[in-house]
Specification:
CATH topology of chain A: OB fold (Dihydrolipoamide Acetyltransferase, E2P)
Radius of gyration of chain B: 35 Å
Number of domains of chain B: 5
Distance between the termini of chain A: 52 Å
Shape of chain A: globular
Radius of gyration of chain A: 16 Å
Strand order of the largest sheet of chain A: 8-1-2-11-10-9
CATH superfamily of chain A: CheA-289, Domain 4
Mean pLDDT of chain B: 74
Low-confidence stretches of chain A: 1-13
Low-confidence stretches of chain B: 1-10, 139-162, 255-317
Number of helices of chain B: 22
Structural class of chain B: alpha+beta
Oligomer: heterodimer
Structural class of chain A: mainly beta
Largest sheet of chain A: 6 strands, mixed
Number of strands of chain B: 23
CATH class of chain A: Mainly Beta
CATH topology of the largest domain in chain B: Heat Shock Protein 90
Number of strands of chain A: 11
CATH class of the largest domain in chain B: Alpha Beta
């Protein structure tokens, strides 16, 4: 264990870091923990007219208006149920605050670069350009998402198109 | 290391410089404003003092911050001003222009230091020598050294320049208990000083022994010499309530005796430094002679911190604090949160038995009042009177009119109308442009005006007023008015589709097209056609609107209407299905519950007949894809809205509440949502969208007939 940590510290640089793991449908995902602001339960949202279906709406997060997206709808993963276990991850991405609905949040894991393998094409419901790699923790596969890239992508329609 | 220290030192200095630049700008603006208000009439003491103060502050600041070049002009200007306000030099209207010009030069130097703009040294030299001429011609003292020269020199020049003066010698022996009557002698001295040149000698030879001395009794005898053009009567008037006949002795003496009176001064005390004579005198040995010499009313030599220095009345001093805008905004945001929290509490308490929890309800009511007051006070911090903007126009109009050979009178109304600071900054450019347009295009030359039966002097009127939740600013001129044929011709030239059947209003809208200009020649004032579209864009960016009314030969009125503030909105909340929306109160005309017989269909679209007018019905649920059981207009409420002359009836389920909402940005974390201008947080903590009525009407127009038809079915 100590050895592992030592080697971690030696290999400073790319890929070393802590990941928040969450599930969407039957798939396990991981995202950079530094992007996470907080985790909260799913609350009533205010719907936004003429918005894509995966944009659930906006909520009032202590006076700040935050959009909530449901990745299960966006990537057609499992059923988009909202119950007491439904979790919203509030993230800080590209200077904005965005909430993401997930089925559950499981853990925070540390991954060394050698634990991360490149993602094969068609590996998941997400476009591969948003996937930094596949991690393995306790024989379980973890899809590592570049959440910043994903949220700022035009297909999420979260931002005004610069004119 | 040294380098580093130097750098940090420079940064520090720069920070202070910024403050100086700001203050200097304000002083210049103040000076200009006063000078312009002087135009013809004679300036009163207070105005001259104010101009002097401004010049002096600039000089002082420039000296401290090491901008020596700026002190040169200000110094000469200050000297001249000082002479004028001491009536050594008569004030002439030519001086206004001179001082204005000097102000410009100082502003130029300021810009040089601040932005690295070019400074024309010849202009500096020119104005310096012009100012010096004034100072030199009238006095024997060389201009620049005026303030530095000693008391005696100044005294001499004054006596030379005032041949009509007489020298009075006065002796005043006050009651011993004069202080107990609350008489303040220093006030008396100051008044005497206003009349002319004063020397005061306190004769304290009759002073009692220290043992028996009572500091509350006046044991002093005052001897004055006063050189003044005023009569004996004037002097007696000053003493009227202070001295009885027999306590005051006034004699007229000749000039030769003056030097004796000034002669052996044992101790020279600044006049302004005398606070309470009785207290001051107490510790002195009785044998000493105390002579107070007034140094010739030269305020710059006086104790500047004393009340009354620079003619500033104590208490009048500007009591304001400079605070960063971000801090104020933070405060506004936090108060906004407080209002929401208060509303949440009120809602939660609504379900509680008012009899059992009377105290709670009373407390909540008080909380509501207090938060509302707090909110208003905080909002008012950001509000600035529009005079800040209006004040810069007299100068501009004056200069431009002179350049164009036109005669113009500028009238401003509603100067005290308050507007958000952010808006004030942004409205200045569009207004400048409009006023410039009035001068250059609209107003005719005097002979043309007379030929058309108008007064030779044209009028430009700036009028601000508050109309509900909006500020309306009118720019009105009595010039030639817009020329319909010319505008249409130019539009055709530029390939804009026009037709003769266009209404005047539609034609006037053409001048907002980019690059549009009807000026025959491009001048340095206007005519490049970069104007009106910029005006429109700027005003739109502030959530404002522009309207034009014009009549040929009579004049033009451009109306800008702006929201009062960018942070708070008066609105009415409505509900559609599960969702709530906010209508800005300013756009609502009325709301009605239509009768089925008043609903008609035109071209597959629903219209409602209201008092002889047919208005398009726009169902909110349809445009926003909402689920609601109420889809028939006669079951719900029609909110009649009007924006920029366009009307629509928007169908909602119910009206809820009238409320003040804090505007929150949707774009901060999301993007702009069509048909809305932002969002707010309601009392229950939920988000509600604020409707942008103008955008909603546009949305309704593009809303396809198919959509409308499918909804009606």
């Amino acid at each position: 264990m100590q050895e592992e940590q030592g080697s971690l510290q030696q290999q400073t640089g790319t890929g070393v870091g802590e990941y928040l793991t969450f599930t969407l449908g039957s798939e396990e995902y991981g995202m950079d923990i530094l992007k996470v602001q907080e985790i909260r339960g799913y609350d009533a949202v205010t719907h936004i007219a003429n918005s894509p279906d995966f944009l659930k709406g906006v909520i009032n997060l202590r006076g700040v208006i935050v959009p909530i997206v449901d990745m299960r709808i966006k990537f057609k993963l499992g059923r988009a149920d909202y119950n007491e276990f439904t979790v919203v991850i509030i993230m800080n991405v590209v200077g904005r605050v965005v909430g993401m609905v997930v089925d559950s949040v499981s853990d925070v894991t540390t991954l060394a670069p050698e634990q991360i393998k490149p993602a094969p094409e068609f590996g998941s419901a997400l476009d591969t350009k948003y996937i930094t790699g596949l991690g393995t923790v306790n024989d379980q596969m973890l899809i590592l998402v570049d959440i910043e890239q994903l949220m700022s992508s035009p297909e999420m329609q979260l931002m005004d198109v610069p004119t | 290391m040294t380098q580093e220290r130097m750098e940090s030192g420079e940064i520090d200095l720069n920070r202070f410089n910024q403050v100086f630049f700001e203050e200097c700008g304000e002083h210049l603006a103040e000076m200009e404003q006063i000078l312009l208000s002087l135009s013809d009439g004679k300036p009163d003491e207070e105005q001259l003092n104010a101009v002097f103060r401004a010049a002096h502050s600039i000089k002082g600041g420039a000296g401290i911050f090491g901008f020596q070049d700026m002190t040169v002009v200000t110094h000469i200007m200050e000297s001249l001003l000082d002479r004028v306000r001491n009536h050594e030099i008569p004030f002439t209207t030519a001086m206004i222009d001179l001082f204005l010009e000097a102000g410009d030069v100082i502003a130029m130097q300021l810009a040089g230091h601040r932005d690295g703009a070019e400074v024309r040294q010849e202009a500096v030299d020119q104005i310096s020598s012009k100012l010096r001429q004034y100072t030199d011609v009238k006095t024997a003292v060389i201009g620049t050294d005026a303030t530095e020269t000693g008391v005696t020199t100044a005294t001499d020049t004054t006596s030379d320049s005032q041949p009509g003066c007489r020298l009075f010698e006065m002796e005043f022996t006050p009651d011993p208990d004069i202080f107990k009557r609350g008489v303040r002698l220093e006030q008396l001295f100051l008044e005497l000083e206003q009349l002319g040149e004063l020397t005061i000698n306190a004769e304290i030879s009759d002073f009692p022994d220290f043992g028996t001395f009572d500091p509350e009794m006046c044991a002093t005898c005052w001897q004055f010499t006063l050189k003044t053009a005023a009569s004996e009567e004037d002097i007696r008037e000053i003493f009227e309530f202070v001295a009885d006949e027999d306590q005051l002795d006034i004699r007229v003496v000749s000039d030769t005796q003056l030097s004796d009176a000034l002669g052996d001064s044992a101790l020279t005390v600044d006049l302004a430094g005398i606070q309470a004579p009785s207290a001051r005198m107490a510790p002195l040995p009785p044998s000493d002679n105390v002579t107070c010499i007034s140094p010739g009313r030269r305020a710059s030599d006086r104790n500047e911190t004393a009340p009354g220095a620079f003619g500033r009345r104590s208490g009048e001093a500007d009591s304001s604090i400079r605070v960063g805008v971000t801090k104020v905004d933070q405060l506004i945001n936090q108060v906004g949160e407080l209002v929401i929290t208060q509303a949440m509490l009120a809602q939660a308490a609504a379900g509680v038995d008012p009899v059992q929890y009377e105290g709670l309800h009373r407390g909540l009511l008080q909380l509501e009042r207090n938060t509302r007051d707090l909110q208003q006070s905080v909002m008012s911090i950001r509000l600035v009177p529009i005079s800040v903007v209006f004040n810069r126009f007299p100068r501009m109009v004056r200069d431009l009119a002179a350049k164009l050979g036109k005669q113009v009178e500028l009238k401003t109304f509603g100067d005290t109308t308050e507007l958000d600071k952010g808006l004030i900054e942004k409205i200045s450019d569009p207004l400048t442009h409009l006023v410039r347009n009035c001068l250059d295009h609209a107003l005719e030359l005097p002979d043309v005006r007379i030929a058309t039966g108008k007064e030779a002097i044209g009028t430009i009127m700036l009028r601000a007023s508050q109309l509900g939740g909006r500020i309306v600013i009118d720019v009105i001129d009595d010039g030639a008015g817009l020329n319909r044929a010319k505008i249409m011709g130019k539009a055709l030239e530029r390939g804009i589709a026009v037709s003769d059947s266009m209404t005047d209003d539609e034609v006037w809208q053409l001048i907002f097209a980019p690059g549009f200009s009807t000026a025959d020649a491009i001048t340095d004032i206007s005519g490049r056609g970069v104007g009106m579209d910029v005006v429109l864009r700027n005003v739109h960016s502030m959530g404002g609107r522009v309207q034009i009314a014009s009549e040929s030969g009579k004049g033009t009125r451009v109306t800008i209407s702006l929201p009062l503030t960018l942070a708070i909105l008066e609105g009415i909340s409505v509900s559609v299905g599960e969702e709530k929306f906010i209508f800005p109160l300013s756009s609502i005309v009325e709301s009605i519950q239509p009768k089925p017989e008043n609903l008609k269909t035109v071209n597959g679209r629903q219209v409602v007949h209201v008092r002889g007018e047919y208005i398009t019905v726009l169902p909110l649920y349809g445009m926003f894809n909402l689920q609601t059981p109420i889809i028939e207009p006669d079951k719900g409420i029609l909110v009649l809205v009007e924006v920029e002359g366009e009307r629509a009836a928007i169908l909602v389920d119910t009206l809820m509440d009238e409320l003040q909402v804090v505007i929150k940005s949707l774009e901060e974390n999301y993007r702009k949502v069509e048909g809305t201008s932002g969002a707010t947080i309601l009392g229950d903590g939920k988000v509600a969208l604020i409707l942008d009525v103008a955008a909603l009407i546009d949305l309704g127009k593009n809303w396809s007939d198919k959509d409308a038809a499918s909804l009606i079915e």
